[in-house]
Structures are given as C-alpha cells and as structure tokens.
Design a protein that fits this description.
Elements lengths: L23 E8 L8 E8 L3
Antiparallel strand pairs: 1-2
Length: about 50
C-alpha cells in the first residue's frame, strides 16, 4: 500500500495497516483475449498455500 503524498512521492503504509503480514496478491490485467478489438479485465487473486 503506497498512497500518493501529493508531491510526486509515495509512502509505504503496509506495516501501519497490517497488510504487510498478509499472503494475498491481487492484480488486474486488461487485454484483448478473443481478438475482437475490445480489451476486457482479468481479475487475479492468489493466496499463498492454496
């Protein structure tokens, strides 16, 4: 978790929010999966150990 400070920098607050201890990863990928010219989102979530 790195919020924008508004001055061109960001701060790592993952330890303050206890998110640094989690083993969960989340991501979004936009791509044209069926070659129809439209990009669609692919939502990814991973949990360590499963």
């Amino acid at each position: 978790m790195q919020p924008n400070n508004g001055n061109g920098t960001s701060s790592d607050i993952s330890f303050m929010s206890n998110a640094a201890a989690t083993e969960i990863g989340v991501g979004v990928l936009f791509a044209d999966y069926d070659n129809d010219g439209m990009e669609r989102p692919l939502f990814l979530m991973g949990i360590k150990g499963t």
